[in-house]
Amino acid sequence: MPLRIEDYALIGDTQSAALVGKDGSIDWLCLPRFDADACFAALLGSEEDGRWLLAPSGDIRRVRRRYRAGTLVLETDFETDTGTLRVIDCMPPRGREPDLVREAVCLEGQVSVRMELAIRFGYGGRTPWVHRLDGRFTAMAGPDALTLLSDVPPRHEDATLRADFPLSAGQCARFLLTWHPSHEPVPLPIDAATAVQHTEEWWREWSSHCAYDGPWREQVLRSLIVLKALTYSPTGGIVAAPTTSLPEALGGVRNWDYRYCWLRDATFTLFALLNAGYHEEAQAWRDWLLRAVAGEPEEIQIMYGVSGERRLTEQELPWLSGYQGARPVRLGNAAVCQFQLDVFGEVLDCLHVARRSGVPPRDEGWGLQRHLLEFLESNWERPDEGIWEVRGPPQHFTHSKVMAWVAMDRAIKTVELFRLPGPVERWKELRARIHAQVCERGYDAGRGSFVQAYGSKELDAALLLIPQLGFLPPGDPRVVGTVDTIQRELCEGGLVRRYDTHRSEDGLPPGEGTFLACSFWLADALTLLCRLDEARTLFERLLSLSNDVGLLAEEYDPRTKRHLGNFPQAFSHVALINTAQNLTYPSCPLTERPGA
Questions:
Q1: How many CA atoms lie within 13 A of 370 on its CB side?
Q2: Are 107 and 49 part of one and the same domain?
Q3: For residue range 341-385, what is the model confidence (pLDDT) as tens digits?
Q4: Does residue 432 sit in helix, strand or coil?
Q5: Which residues form the GH15-like domain (predicted)?
Q6: Torsion of CA 135, 136, 140, 143, to 10 degrees
Q7: What mean pLDDT, rounded, does the chain reach?
Q8: Are strands 330-331 and 443-444 parallel, antiparallel or unpaired?
């Protein structure tokens, strides 16, 4: 039976990441970085598209797994009729080249173990040439090479390395897989046993700096570890997820490549890192943001590559069948070409939060912000594709206009607080104009709620952010009405959908799961309305949706009780961290956060 999305766990080295299934198979890995070609792509196809299996060869009665506390070192225990096997997986902090370490340890009895390594470069499209040298096997195709060093000598058959071997209690077999450019010599191997210990120590030292000490510390720390794992450490960019094309509806076409960095996540991510005590990561994220958006304002994109790349051309891989038949499998993301007005507010808000929080300002920072504001003054009334990147016609999305107001508001506050130069009176006048227009055209008095777009009757979960952003106070009847209407009409099984895909014109076939970040936003809004019991109940429900090792996807289907979308999703974990903070310290509502 195919694995569910939530049956996977994450390992990574803060430059790339792998998904390890409950069956002991690594079904997804891109090397040498998140957005590189996959060498294991079984997640989006079949075993023939590349995977690495290490598990008992016989029947398995029970599987239990966990991360070692405060780390990204994964332990999976397989109970069989004859004994128990533990598989330990990690990607050590990177030296020159990326490594992946796997250990098979027999805990009790005797277990027959099977290892199958099928390397398929180019997302399953290239079967490598495999040769043996000095006791190591190297698989090579095009620019990529992977070298396997193992305690158990494998055999090469059918373009796959295989080994079958017994282990008795206390015995261990280790495997080391190292990527390197095919034109360079095979690098010297690291010591696998030492590498696992070093990886554990590295993560525990990093985790020790977590400043959150509330009732949900374990879940918050796990989410912070996910954020760190999804950080491309050379630049500070944080990818939305390590995967592409995991579907938002099983068998559907809402399958997108999320291995890039979105501006929409900027403030939420910065706020989560700062509140948790990770100022270095927050500064690195701020610096990545400044580098990525540098240039002419009309050229600003909603997303960038991990080093700030701008060309993310979307294409399809027809040879991959897709996760459980969900096609097409996409690389790149055509939404990169969209005009999304809200990103200007997100950039200005993020930079203001950073400055207010003591992140040292960059000399070019304020000049860049002034440049963006000048563009926004002339373009804020344009329709756009909105925060949800609809592939239908542009609209005057209410949330986008609110974010244009945020941009002006944060610019004014920055000038007033830090005595920086700027046409404050002109910005104040425009801020007031935007506010008045949103309240007039984005609010439906008959529904008692803000609506998705001017003239629309539809709802949008992004409108839950209105009080968080400081656009209106939480107690305003229009805010209360919007929260109540969304809670009544956009919720399914108590969780929030982004919008009604059957009624909204987004250019795609209808149908998707509830959106986890939006559900956390509802908990935040209820907290601001002092409906703390409701907020805590919803938050605990959301925590219960995490898989057995604490990971969340982008969406959840309450009917099938399955995770949907790319996995694990940074936006979901950022929202978890922020909601935990808000519920732990409800006397400090979000409207008092830096930037509001």
A1: 11
A2: yes
A3: 999 999 999 999 999 999 988 877 899 899 999 999 999 999 999
A4: helix
A5: 217-580
A6: -130
A7: 94
A8: unpaired
Residue pLDDT, tens place only, 162-197: 999 999 999 999 999 999 999 999 999 999 999 999
Task: Give yes or no: residues 175 and 226 share one domain.
Answer: no
pLDDT at 86 over 90: yes
Q: Give the mean model confidence (pLDDT) for residues 458-468.
A: 97
pLDDT (average), residues 9-33: 98
Match 């701008």 to its residue by tokens.
Answer: 310
Task: Report d(CA 291, CA 173) in Å as an integer.
Answer: 45
Dihedral angle computed from the Cα positions of residues 465, 576, 260 and 341, in that order, rounded to the nearest 10 degrees: 0
51 and 116 co-located in one domain = yes
Q: How many residues does the chain have?
A: 596
Here the tokens at position 406 are 């945020």
Which residue, 206, 241, 270, sits at the end of a domain? 206
The helix (run of H) or strand (run of E) holding residue 501 is none
Q: pLDDT of 241-295, one tens digit each? A: 999 999 999 998 989 999 999 998 888 999 999 999 999 999 999 999 999 998 8
Whether 236 and 270 share a structural domain? yes
Categorize the per-residue pLDDT at 395 as very low, low, confident or very high, splitting at 50, 70 and 90: very high
SS (H, E, C) 34-83: CCCCEEECHHHCCHHHCEEEEEECCCCCEEEEEECCCCCCEEEEEECCCE
Please give the helix or strand (H or E) that residue 180 lies within, else none: strand 172-181
pTM: predicted TM-score of the whole model, two decimal places: 0.96
Q: Are residues 141 and 166 in the same domain?
A: yes
- Look at residue 289 and give its three-state secondary structure: helix
Q: How far is CA 124 from CA 44, 120, 190, in A?
A: 9, 5, 27
| Interatomic CA distance for residues 101 and 185, integer angstroms | 20
Q: Is residue 589 pLDDT above 50, yes or no? A: no
CATH code, 167 = 2.70.98.10
- Say how far apart CA 119 and CA 111 lie, in whole Å: 25
Instruction: Say whether both 79 and 63 belong to one domain.
Output: yes
For residue 215, the domain's CATH number is 1.50.10.10
> What is the average pLDDT across 109-131?
97
**Residue 306 sits in the same domain as residue 193:** no
pLDDT band at 1 (very low <50, low <70, confident <90, very high): low
**Are 79 and 54 members of one domain?**
yes
Between CA 287 and CA 280 the distance in angstroms is 10
Of 159, 182, 206, which residue sits at a domain end?
206
Domain count, the chain: 2
Q: Which domain holds residue 572?
A: 209-592
- The alpha carbon dihedral of 524, 525, 526, 532 has a sign of positive
Q: Name residue, tokens 């508001």.
A: 409
Q: Which residues pair with 180 in a beta bridge?
A: 145
Which of the 8 DSSP states describes residue 325?
G
